[in-house]
Write a structure and sequence with these properties.
Elements: E1 8-11, H1 17-28, E2 32-37, H2 41-53, E3 58-62, H3 68-82, E4 87-90, H4 105-126, E5 135-139, H5 143-146, H6 152-172, E6 178-184, H7 190-194, H8 201-209, H9 218-229, E7 240-243
Parallel strand pairs: 1-2, 1-4, 2-3, 4-5, 5-6, 6-7
Bound molecules: NADP nicotinamide-adenine-dinucleotide phosphate (NAP).
NADP nicotinamide-adenine-dinucleotide phosphate (NAP) binds near residues 16, 66, 141, 187 and 191.
Length: about 250
């Protein structure tokens, strides 16, 4: 029997990259999955088609998670369609490095609204529906460990996520709800291709600094999320699990 049979998972930003990989992995473990996207409808539908092709169940739901009204509709659609919610993966996020002198309100809001406000709104809307044994997983980043130069805003958002993970593990723990973060190292995704990280000196530096000698793939992160979502991690909460091939 698959370890997530009977569970329902909501994965934000699951049309691409790490989120798409997580959605497919959770579905392969038996969960019914809500594939959230903001604009990439055809990619989200493709993720759903792949899950269904593998014998799983999924729906794609458009919602800009920076908006409370959109998030409320997203969570209600999950309940209306699948009848429950057990696993919330706060994955949608954006990364834009810049020198401190280049800080603008727009750059700040772009990253804090999606990376911090979004997970707060999604977890807040989901919380009333989460029963004992549920799991919230926040996708943070290894930047909170290595603190790279020129990442003050992005690292700030992920530092906030690590703190929020700890706070919510205390707040939701008495209801039997676990809250953990997964902090990936550099991962090959649509996003890291689009922003030019793939093939850059930054990628080469990461490979040199990583004991396992490569950058990560979405499957490396999806397997950690699958563990945290399952009863196998029933005694794990408030933790930050770094998946970076040993880079520190
Ligand atoms: P990605 O390939 O750029 O995909 C981003 C996803 O977020 C897309 O599905 C996108 O959907 C969705 N999204 C964007 N804005 C949204 C919004 N307003 N509402 C809902 N969804 C929205 O990103 P990724 O590289 O997989 O990164 C995913 C997460 O992992 C982020 O939190 C990132 O900070 C974290 N992370 C990534 C790496 C890495 O090296 N890739 C390392 C550490 C941490 P649409 O296209 O439909 O907008």
């Amino acid at each position: 029997m698959s370890k997530l049979n009977g569970k329902v998972a909501l994965v934000t930003g699951a049309s691409k990259g790490i989120g798409a990989g997580i959605a497919r992995r959770l579905a392969s473990e038996g969960a019914k999955v809500v594939v959230n996207f903001a604009s990439s409808e055809s990619e989200a539908n493709e993720v759903v088609a792949k899950i269904e092709g593998d014998g799983g169940r999924a729906i794609a739901v458009r919602a800009d998670i920076r908006s409370k009204s959109a998030v409320d509709v997203l969570v209600q659609s999950t309940i209306d369609h699948f009848g429950r919610l057990d696993i919330v993966v706060n994955n949608a996020g954006i990364y834009q490095f810049a020198k401190i002198e280049a800080t603008t309100e727009a750059l700040y809001r772009l990253q804090f609204d999606l990376n911090v406000l979004g997970p707060l709104l999604v977890t807040g809307a989901a919380a009333p529906f989460l029963a004992e044994g549920s799991s919230v997983i926040n996708i943070s980043s290894f930047v909170t460990r290595i603190l790279p130069a020129e990442s003050a805003i992005y690292s700030g958002t992920k530092g906030a996520i690590d703190a929020i993970t700890g706070v919510l593990s205390r707040e939701l723990g008495p209801r039997g709800i676990r809250v953990n973060s997964v902090n990936p190292g550099l991962i090959e995704t649509d996003g890291t291709h689009a922003n030019g990280v793939m093939g850059s000196e930054f990628q080469a530096w990461n490979e040199q600094q990583t004991p396992l000698g490569r950058i990560g793939q979405v499957t490396d992160i999806a397997s950690i999320v699958s563990f945290l979502a399952s009863g196998d991690a029933g005694w794990v909460t408030g933790e930050r699990i770094v998946g970076s091939g040993g880079m520190r």
